[in-house]
Specification:
It is a single chain. The protein is mainly β. The protein has 1 helix and 30 strands. The chain has a 30-stranded antiparallel beta sheet, with no helix packed on it. β10 and β11 form a beta hairpin. The chain starts with a helix and ends in a 5-residue tail after the last strand.
Length: about 400
């Protein structure tokens, strides 16, 4: 019985070994068949079809060293493509943002050197230095466009150009980052402004409200010292003193040129002008602005000098075809002393008069020297003559 049992166990062991060898052969055959089928399928796709859609959340391209060279991912705002240099630095990125698309470039040290961005106003281009410091930008704005550049060591604009619908303007700044020059153009004209400390205007060249030319120079405090422009009759120049009131005015009138010198209160102290007969006129004024004296061309191209006391003329000196004439007046405007050349040109004469203008003394040099004294009513006189010649 034991022999029968042993024989049965030997047969079972033989059958198990046989089945195992058969299963191994079947598995190898099945794998070969599956591999051939897959290879055939891939070869069939390659030969006959192109895949239209490739779906993935992340796609990596790696180099021979196994390091990522490019990465395509999906983010909160859309797609993003990053590129790495051989040394491992992330040097470029193209991505979607809330406003549109962004493109950024870095150097191998990891510093930003350039960027192109979309924003609500349009596009913006930035360039930076090797250390990442912003060097300049060009930006589209809702009003127009904006271009700015900076110096090494500062990201503040050293020069800036802006264009809008109605105007174009620019600024330049010196090393201390203070704006020193502004210039621009509008539909009304163009202008250049130089700024000093505290952004105070110290020089201006441009147009005025009438679209005519205007130049203005100011002191360090920003107070205007010199203005030059155009008026109804030609050019004008105004020079102020430090108080801003006095100074001088040079310009043109409908008769010709004029010049006025003003005191510290801004009132005229002296003037030079052209009068109606095209002759010149020079005037001096009191501290309150009243006329004190003037000299001008009188009749027949002769000169006159007149002196005033307050509003009253008190002296007049003039010339004529026969010689000079002097008049002294009282405060009522009456001549009380007259002296000059006789009308016939033969010699000198003088006349002394009362306050109402009545002559009381008269003297003449020709034909014979004499002095006449008159009564108060001027009807009687006494004459003093020179002695007769022997």
């Amino acid at each position: 019985m034991h022999e029968a049992t042993d024989a049965r166990l030997d047969r079972l062991e033989l059958e198990v070994r046989t089945l195992r060898r058969s299963h191994a052969r079947w598995r190898r055959a099945t794998m070969v068949a599956c591999g051939a089928a897959v290879l055939g399928t891939l070869l069939g796709f390659a030969a006959d079809e192109v895949a239209e859609v490739l779906r993935a959340r992340r796609i990596e391209l790696v180099g021979a060293d196994g390091k990522v060279a490019a990465l395509l991912t999906a983010g909160d705002h859309g797609g993003q493509l990053d590129i790495w240099a051989a040394g491992g630095a992330n040097v470029a990125r193209l991505a979607a943002s809330e406003s549109g698309g962004d493109m950024s470039l870095w150097n191998t040290a990891g510093k930003p050197v350039a960027g192109l961005f979309a924003n609500s106003g349009g596009g913006r281009v930035e360039v930076s230095r090797g250390d990442g410091e912003l060097a300049g930008y060009l930006e589209a704005t809702p009003e127009g466009s904006d271009l700015a550049m900076s110096r090494v060591g500062s990201e503040n604009a050293a020069s800036r150009f802006r264009v809008t619908k109605d105007r174009s303007e620019a600024l330049l700044a010196h090393a201390e980052e203070h704006t020193v020059l502004l210039f621009g153009a509008t539909r009304k004209g163009a202008a250049v402004t130089v700024l000093g400390d505290g952004d105070r205007e110290i020089a201006y060249l441009g147009g005025d409200q009438s679209k005519a030319g205007l130049m203005r120079l100011s002191n360090a405090s920003g107070a205007s010292m010199v203005e030059a422009g155009t008026g109804d009759h030609g050019g004008e120049l105004f020079a102020r003193n430090t108080s801003g009131q006095g100074g001088a005015v040079l310009g043109n009138s409908d008769k010709g040129g004029f010049m006025e010198v003003r005191n510290g209160d801004g009132k005229g102290a002296a003037s030079l002008s052209v009068q109606d007969n095209n002759g010149g006129r020079v005037a001096a004024y009191t501290a309150t602005g009243q006329i004190a004296a003037f000299m001008d061309q009188g009749k027949e191209e002769s000169g006159t000098v007149q002196v005033y006391a307050g509003p009253n003329r008190v002296a007049a000196l003039g010339g004529s075809a026969t010689g000079g004439l002097l008049n002294l007046f009282n405060l009522k405007g009456k001549a009380v002393f007259v002296a000059g050349s006789a009308a016939d040109g033969t010699g000198g004469l003088f006349s002394i008069r009362t306050g109402d203008g009545t002559q009381v003394v008269r003297g003449s040099a020709e034909p014979e020297p004499e002095v006449a004294v008159y009564s108060d009513d001027g009807k009687q006189k006494r004459v003093i003559s020179a002695p007769a010649k022997p």
